[in-house]
Amino acid sequence: MLFKKNSSIDFLSIEDIKDGLLILKGNRYRAVVTADPVNFSLLSEEEQGAVEAAFISLLLSLSFPLQFFTIVKPVDVSESIEEFRSRLKFLPEGMREYEKELEEFLGYFSKQTITTESYVVIPYDDTAGGYDRARSEIMRRVHMVVEGLAKCGLMPRILGTDELLELMFFVLNRDGNIKVNNLIKAGAFELYKKGVTLGAEA
After folding, report:
1. Are 166 and 132 part of one and the same domain?
2. In the listed set 62, 91, 112, which residue is the last one of a domain according to the structure?
3. If we measure between CA atoms, which residue out of 1, 12, 7 comes closest to residue 169?
4. Would you say the C-alpha torsion 171, 174, 178, 179 has a positive or negative sign?
5. Is there a single domain that holds both residue 124 and residue 166?
6. How far is 41 from 49, CA to CA, in rounded Å?
């Protein structure tokens, strides 16, 4: 039996990412909102009740579904280490040994420390296929969600195009360590459409 060789675009529903929106096949659109978390356990009972009431109020006010998800990833200190290395030749001899120890510490720290990031995916499916109308409607939904999350004591914001690219790359390549700016320079979507080769960073 012969198997057809498919590119990764055959398996992904993402057609484009622009204007801070994920554009999926079938005239479907997604915006992603994030916010720094609140340590709920450190709030007083009154504050906890207020947050819960605000969140319930937000959910009851919506006429569209939301998707919540959290990713866990290690702390990335590669840019800091690279900056240290670039300045090494300018340091006095006595400071170079200290710089090497600091670099080793940062490398150890990054392996031992993880961060969690939470997101809210806001959908809109437009059967008419009009981008401008779809963007207007999904921004209206984003405004409702952002306003509701702000009442919960959060500081929400919508992800921009570069941040969406970085998030999608991380989700699809959990073990990868290529920077999103490298993807953009190489033509981000050509990477999975045609197989552009990028070198992984140390």
Report:
1. yes
2. 112
3. 12
4. positive
5. yes
6. 12
Phi, psi of 62 (to 5 degrees): -90, 145
Beta bridge partners of 97: none
Amino acid at 134: A
**Which residue numbers in the chain have pLDDT < 70?**
1-12, 75-81, 84, 88-89, 91, 94, 107-113, 129, 174-202
Q: What is the pLDDT of residue 2?
A: 45
Instruction: Note whether 57 and 152 are same-domain residues.
Output: yes
Specify the pTM. Answer: 0.68
Number of structural domains (the chain) is 2
97 and 141 part of one domain: no
Handedness of CA 31, 158, 166, 117 (dihedral sign): negative
Residue 60 in tokens: 């009851």
DSSP β-bridge partners for residue 21: 18
Q: Strand (E) positions, the chain?
A: 14-18, 21-24, 28-34, 67-74, 114-125, 157-158
Task: Give the whole-angstrom CA distance, residue 33 versus residue 160.
Answer: 9
- Cβ atoms within 10 Å, residue 162: 15
Of 112, 131, 160, which closes a domain? 112
Interval 125-141: pLDDT, tens: 987 768 899 999 999 99
Amino acid at residue number 194: K
Contact indicator for 68, 149 with CB cutoff of 8 Å: no
